[in-house]
Amino acid sequence: xxxxxxxxxxxxxxxxxxxxRLKKIALLWSLGKDSxxxxxxxRKAFFGRVPxxxxxxxxxxxxPEMYAFRERYAxxxxxxxxxxxxxxxxxxxxxxxxxxxxxxxxTEGLKLALAKHGFDGLITGIRRDEEPTRAKERVFSPRxxxxxxxxxxxxxxxxxHFNASPxxxxxxxxxxxxxxxxxxxxxxxxxxxxxxxxxxxxxxGRRYRSLGDADITFPVASNARTxxxxxxxxxxxxxxxxxxxxxxxESEDAFERLRTAGYL
Amino acid sequence: MNVLVxxxxxxxxxxxxxxxxxxxxxxxxxKSTFIGRLLHETGSLPEGKVETLxxxxxxxxxxxxxxxxxxxxxxxxxxxxxxxxxxxxxxxASREVxxxxxxxxxxxxxxxxxxxxxxxxxxxxxxxxxxxREQTRRHGYLLHLLGIRQVAIVVNKMDRVDFxxxxxxxxxxxxxxxxxxxxxxxxxxxxxxxxxGDGVAIRTPAIDWHQGPTALGVFDQLLPxxxxxxxxxxxxxxxxxxxxxxxxxxxRIESGRVSVGDEIVVMPGAKFARVKSxxxxxxxxxxxxxxxxxxxxxxxxxxxxxxxVERGNLLALSSTPPAVSNGVRARVFWLHQAALVTGTAVVLxxxxxxxxxxxxxxxxxxxxxxxxxxxxxxxxxxxxxxIEIALKAPLAADSYAVNPSTGRFAxxxxxxxAGGGLILDMQTQRAQRSLSRSTHYLxxxxxxxxxxxxxxxHLVQLSAPDRISFLRQEIEGRIVFTTSFGIEDQxxxxxxxxxxxxxxxxxxxxxxxxxxxxxxxxxxxxxxxxRIRGVYPNNVDLxxxxxxxxxxxxxxxxxxxxxxxxxxxxxxxxxALAGAAAWVVGLRADQSAxxxxxxxxxxDPGRNLVKLSPLFDWSRQQVAEFTSNNGVPVNSLHAKxxxxxxxxxxxxxxxxGEPERAGRWWWEDEMKRExxxxxxx
Lengths: 264, 681
Known about the structure:
The complex is a heterodimer.
Chain A: H1 3-21, E1 25-28, H2 33-45, E2 54-58, H3 64-76, E3 81-85, H4 98-117, E4 121-123, E5 140-143, E6 171-174, H5 182-192, E7 206-207, E8 220-221, H6 227-236, H7 254-260
Parallel strand pairs in A: 1-2, 1-4, 2-3, 4-6
Antiparallel strand pairs in A: 5-6, 7-8
Helix pairs in contact in A: 1-2, 5-6
Chain B: E1 18-25, H1 31-41, H2 49-59, H3 74-79, E2 86-91, E3 96-101, H4 109-116, E4 121-127, H5 134-145, E5 150-156, H6 165-182, E6 185-191, H7 215-219, E7 234-236, E8 239-241, E9 248-252, E10 257-259, E11 263-267, E12 271-279, E13 292-294, E14 298-303, E15 314-317, E16 323-334, E17 345-350, E18 353-366, E19 384-397, E20 408-413, E21 416-425, H8 429-439, H9 445-459, H10 464-474, E22 479-483, H11 487-498, E23 504-508, H12 515-528, E24 533-535, H13 539-549, H14 558-577, E25 582-584, H15 593-596, E26 601-604, E27 609-612, H16 620-629
Parallel strand pairs in B: 1-3, 1-4, 4-5, 5-6, 22-23, 22-25, 23-24, 25-27
Antiparallel strand pairs in B: 2-3, 7-15, 8-9, 9-14, 10-13, 11-12, 11-15, 12-14, 16-19, 16-21, 17-18, 17-20, 18-19, 20-21, 26-27
């Protein structure tokens, strides 16, 4: 079986496990390339219809292209879209470096949304190859109350048996594309003709590799104007994918602190 | 982490075989350092990463630490140990490799298992000065249990032993003997110094005595996991979706392949149907729609008839069904803090099935880290042993030797995965015996009388369908319903099917049944969408009987007739009921004077089981109304005056006014007209 087919089969399996084993789940849609692939995979898993809400936790600071994309495809794909707002920056841990603090608004928004809707499972599009602490994740990853990730006590997970019984008050993060790489995401996007936001493609010698808040996300130098060119570029580059995401680089453990506190 | 490139080549990733390799070994023997060095030597590190690592090391006042590359958590860097598995990708001359870095600390064995379970091959690292240690052996043993057959040995820190060839050979020989004893295929043994780079990508002068490959060269010898496509078709059911007018059964094919039109069987329960379609989204053009799907795919299929299918069922081709058993014997590894002992209640997870179970025996316990086996019947955390498990519901699976995908399971305690195992045997005599011992309803004669009385008192107040359901709830172990396709049997089969009860349905094919009965057998299977197992006479006994008395010798005298009944019905019945806890039959009190002495529920002490006649107090009229109202097919002979239908030579139609069973063995004394099935012994 080809690599993309294997990846697809594993992701669909995970989606169906989450839907079968949990009571109330939602898919977190960041509007980026990874979560668009996730929605596509969910439609494959459930034969065209995403049978649970798709939630955008909105910082209010996304690029205009991202909002336009959200409005168009929520309709085109018949999504049950929930848009939840994040609290103001003042509500966020002051000891975090500035960009991380800004990003942590999303964690707070997520906690509020969880409390409001009572989800016991959140499907998110993180990948192992993006960032070292994400490489240590489980496919079904328990979060304590308040969304805290206890990395020292992750349950064993093997042979596609997932731990799907969150204790009361806790929830599970489900990671259907944990095993994909950035290059896989683009190769699959190309093969399946999945729509993307144009910011990923080069304009005036620059493009975005990873999309977040407009004020803390920066483009990389690139001439890749098509997905084919992006794939060729990825095979030659040694620059990390999240190099344009300021909150990853402010201090050694900034991103780990974000994650253990409940960030994606 | 973004590690995408190797300077050795410019081909696209998809043109390389993919191998997933786990790096294991004792704590501090240098797994993370080895990986860091490997990535550095192959030019696989992201820009600026080495500088970042230097800064992180300096901040802690430590010499440059390659391991910080994978030890991404603050606590891992502070303590200098890997806590959880990390994954990283790189390319060699001929492989696309996913490296899995597993922790070597005993406390984090569950994380090592999590990482290693995803691997096709393993590299076991051993410190040259410390030699083979506890986790070296434990990891080696677990690799074998996890089904990893390709293992390479890397002896690290050779600089600490002055690159001594003798020391290298000593260690390599010790671990080789251990692994080969486990049945693991040792790919290569390599001496290296990860910190200095000797032997990692190049053979430096210090180890010029080494003839084998470098550590990097080992990766090119590793092979991707073998496909399970050539094994029997197995599809664990994840769910049945009814989003529109289709009923789509979904799951991932664990092994084999299936095509539209194939006859499949749903296990346990043995319900049969054919694959009507393979459903996909987006809906492909007619000419491109799938007719066949193979192992590894997540699929959706529809069937040609509505049979009850649910999550936890296992689909197979009807020609190659899996084993079904209430007991398994398995080799397990145990990760839970509380030890595994006889009597531990667990949930067994096999495929998508989750079955409440109890451990009935524990033996052959090993601490895989120690050299000596331990003489105990307790499997402590991080230990290994063999167990027998009694399941509260039947499991459809294979032994690991037959099918590695469906021959393994996880064990859950309090909602958390606590261990895993390989099925050694699905039908062990010992497991069966211990099951009947531990769950048998009738333990002593006194106890039996009391229990039967209490059961009868309760059952008499229930409707017939509820009586069967209650019996199923009340009694653990196998329940067998024997049908002769009489009108009562058809009514009972309808009740069992409606409630989807886990009750085996069998019929005794004497070889002398009416053609109409065989027709009804086939029609009944179609109607209910399930196979009804035929149990046959022992061929040797039957050949001897016919030789002795002739083909129709049973007419000669009652002894000859009873001998025939015994060979054709009673002995096969005894086999069908062997090990069963209860037996459901279609007897009614008003069928004959003799049967009035039987009862709604009785003990069959000879067979050591509970016998339920759920229609015991029904009239024939009631039964006929029930089957007619529910559209249940009945034997066409009933309309021709046959009421009780057995073997063709021994059953005739009734004359007006005759009692129901007067047509059976009509030439004999009416008080003795039983074949022996229902005689309490």
